[in-house]
Amino acid sequence: MDAGPKHSHQDRDGPQFVPLGFRHLNKETWVVSKNRHDAGERLNYVNTPHVIAMVGLPARGKTYISKKLSRYLNWIGINTKVFNLGEYRRHATTAYKCHEFFRPENKEAMAIRTQCAKDALDDVCTWLDNGGEVAVFDATNSTIERRQLILDIVVKKRGFKLFFVESVCDDPKIVEQNIMEVKINSPDYQSMGADVALRDFLQRIEHYQEQYEPLDENTESELSYMKIFNTGEKVLVHKHEGHIQARIVYYLMNIHIIPRTIYLTRHGESEWNREGKIGGDSQLSPNGVKYAIALANYINGQNIKNLRVWTSWHHRTIQSASGVRAPQERWKSLNEIDAGVCDGKTYEVIKREFPEQFESRDRDKFAYRYPRGESYEDLVARLEPVIMELERQGNVLVVSHQAVHRCLLAYFLDKNSEELPYLEVPLHTLIKLTPVAYGCKMEQINFPIEAVNTHRPKPKDLPTSFDSMGIKSTNMEPGFLEDRFKTEGKDKKKEGLDNGSGKIANNGDATLPT
């Protein structure tokens, strides 16, 4: 029975992406490497280390793409690191003077820049030799000569795979926006005013344009690459090789820079939450119903443009979102982690009945798989289609579960596999994620509705918390409930969702249970 609001909805489970660690191995090409990453054991199957080399003029979003790609690959378990050439150049030279350093005629500066590139590539190769899997070389790499140097070192000398990603942008508004948001605040311009920095950077771009040679299938036919035009309006792919490159291409085809907000919240407190049981498909508690009403009134009051609502298939998430006036979709991928034989049990019962399993989970919570159930690593794989679709979307409210939101937050906040299972996601809290230049700003809105605490801290170390991440927190005032809620007559109670505790109206303001 669909207990949700009468919006059109659909199951948004697209093709499932199987993590590298669970793919069948081709004995002729795949090499198993077991490395200790993020202080946790994770098996990754990678045939050959990869170098992803960026290409493009300054202020075309190369660093944005590099950081975002690195965050994604690390999240799915591929050990990835960004090597930014600008940092090498700043380390090798004295304080930045002006754009003259980038003139093609400046032979001394050109020699320094070339040596910095060689030093960075040496570090890239050393890192890959010592367990790295994908290195992202963030630089302009804007000439055939420079790309040939990279090819000689990375492929011909070291035997790694090489894939170029060129960002092409001829929209002056996008370029200027990138300069104003990021470049004038870079270390190069710390001592300059904004206007002076803008003029200098535009002149720097002109110097690069004098020598710029875009990737071309005729002059560089042997290279594997993709070209992204105007932040995703068009994508061209040439000779991509293998699973990792295919995965990178698909990911980069889905990202965009349009301003939007992603809201994450757990369902309202459930009856099983109150009883300390994990898993299941229980109904909301009376306090959970209050949160569903508060959430609906808050979101509806924000008038968020083109908002979409995603829930899992569990009743408690559908109930919690039922009062929100927006198109709703159900995702099986958003269901809570499968606790297997432990489903419906309290942690005390699990510890008593399965002491060895309980201890194993405490030792490595990310990799531990419930008997006949899932691990957090499995859950990350299950959520990859959700991440892909979130990257494509505008404003979205995701109503799901504690373990699911931990995985989603780890992606957006760039948290490693050791931190992920201990991220705090309290009940009756709305998390607001706003993508910014090189990351994601996070705020939490706490609703004054009582709920149990379902967070189990890390046995020895302190868990990662909102406070330690420096996240803005907003507490809704107690008067918020009285100001926002309107108690309706008995005729209104017949509308909406009957969950055993009260009713939530599908239209108009949400209604408190009586």
TrEMBL record:
Keyword Signal: no
Bias-annotated ranges (Basic and acidic residues): 481-497
Polar residues bias spans: 465-476
InterPro entries: 6Pfruct_kin, 6Phosfructo_kin, His_Pase_superF_clade-1, His_PPase_superfam, P-loop_NTPase, PG/BPGM_mutase_AS
SUPFAM superfamilies membership: P-loop containing nucleoside triphosphate hydrolases, Phosphoglycerate mutase-like
Positions of substrate binding: R266, H267, G268, E269, S270, E271, W272, N273, R316
Catalytic residues as annotated in Swiss-Prot or TrEMBL: H267 (tele-phosphohistidine intermediate), E336 (proton donor/acceptor)
Keywords in alphabetical order: ATP-binding, Hydrolase, Nucleotide-binding
GO cellular component: cytosol
Lineage top rank: taxon: Eukaryota
Region named Disordered: 456-514
One Pfam family of this chain: 6PF2K
A GO biological process held by the record: fructose metabolic process
Domain 6-phosphofructo-2-kinase: 46-258
Molecular function GO labels: 6-phosphofructo-2-kinase activity; ATP binding; fructose-2,6-bisphosphate 2-phosphatase activity
Similarity comment: family membership: In the C-terminal section; belongs to the phosphoglycerate mutase family.
Protein name (Swiss-Prot/TrEMBL): 6-phosphofructo-2-kinase/fructose-2, 6-bisphosphatase isoform X3
Taxonomic source organism: Sipha flava (yellow sugarcane aphid)
